[in-house]
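Figure 2 data, in text form.
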Amino acid sequence: MSSIPALLRDRIAATPDAEAYRFPSGDDWTSMTWRQVGDRVRELALGLAKLGAGPGTRVSILCSTRVEWILCDLAVLSTGAATTTIYPSNTAAESAYVITDSGSTIVIAENDEQVAKLRSVQKELPGVTSVVVIDGTAGDDGWVVTLDSVRGDDDSDDDSDDGFEAMVEAIGPDDVATLIYTSGTTGRPKGVVLTHDNWLYAAGSVRELDLLSGDDLHFLWLPLSHSFGKLLEVVMIGIGVPTALDGRLDRIADNLGVLRPTFMAAAPRIFEKIHNTVAATQQREGGVKLKIFTWAKRTGVRVVRARQRGASIPLTTRLEYGLADRLVFSKLRARFGGRIRFFISGAAPLSQDIAEFFDAAGLTILEGYGLTESSAGSFLNRPDNVRFGTVGLPLPGTEVRIADDGEVLIGGRGIMRGYHGLAEETAEALEEGWLRTGDIGELDEAGRLRITDRKKELIKTSGGKYVAPTYMEGRIKAACPYLSHVFVHGDRRNYCTALVTLDMDVTRPWAEAEGLPTDPEELRGHPRMRAEVDKAIAQVNADQASYATIKKFSILAQDFTVEGGELTASLKVKRKAVEERYGGTLDGLYEE
């Protein structure tokens, strides 16, 4: 196999009439077969070639997750060009930087709103010859054209068939397929250069695990601009798994119930929000329902932990768990369509408390690990051998080594070619073929990887003690359903503190039921709200060394957001940005 378009060609030949993609159409869903996908990709590829796409060129896609993103991506790749991904939440200036740095000559934009963003920086985009809008109108100056107008020759034209096949055949495994700009928790984004072979390796290694088949249904909401989403795109083509796409975050829960998928991948924040919504609902209802839920959760977690230890489960506990499942957990599974075989979590650390809750409910989360620089997928827990707190075993063909300072090093065919135009940064990241991940970790006796923290994010207190903030943050969020984000601080300070934000979708109904203020500014200072947060922090502090405990905290009136600059597009906290924005608040927590 030489390229992603060749992979698609083989998929079409193998299962031409099987469902490939399902997507929203009004209040219903529409499907495409692999044959229809091939026809549309061919048509778009020939049209994009007329606009100048071809070997050595770059085409940027500025669009949310929808079927057209995949069709355009496959068409771009079929011309021999490479796709540059841009998050739709990026500002005009950020978009202009990615477009110019990558050397993109064509930009595919989702709608008129994104086109307006590009228009505002058009003078900074002299290399862009065409903007193709998916849902929007063409411009009078010819710079903006509609996707419907980007067409190749008539389907019956043998010459165009030969031309398309010639384009695909000319693509080699080492040709650049994708430039993905790291979301940048620190510093300016760098363009990660990934080849066709990088993606084919990653997709092939997942296929080798035999986790999925054409009988599955994949629900995809993750940003296709992110490497995780892109990996899933290629994996599903290779295996022939139908994918239902809808990038609207507020529709995830409803879509799960309607589509009844067998698996879905997500960032930990989604699982945290589901857990917190369920827990807060039970707390709000109180009484017998709360007692049953609390008992069921406690029983389920006891069973899960016994399984993790390999211990036998007493008959009485099994009977209790069966009752807990009937009264509580079965209803949760039904809300997600009743067919979920497993979830996959990546992009950030998953709290063990959250993992245990979902596993108790029969909704196992397989935590994985990878970087954009390693084609997204490097490690994954296996369904028959899940070990919470780890990201599992390496994918077939991936090599791992732990450096003397604890940094995780990865090797294999999935490792990037380098950072676009940044020789010095590339040399720093790649050491004799090994990728320096920047993460601190350890391997257990079975070879499973445990990530303990980011190398550059470890807190070193003024007393010289190291604290892993993300571990504490995840546990605190799991202990209090009303929290959206927790930010642990303490580098070069004499103790640790925390900033917390409220998940108002969960907290507002509770506040209303309790007669508390529903305005975040008023609620954050209310004794009841502070008591809930204090209880969660005390619970986590109880089993920590003294130097790692959180001594003070502040509840913020506003949540961290991508638009506000505190989160990356993959929902990871930008630590520097938070420290800069809330520096005064943090300083206040250290005043005697």
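Caption note: The two ends are 65 Å apart (CA to CA).
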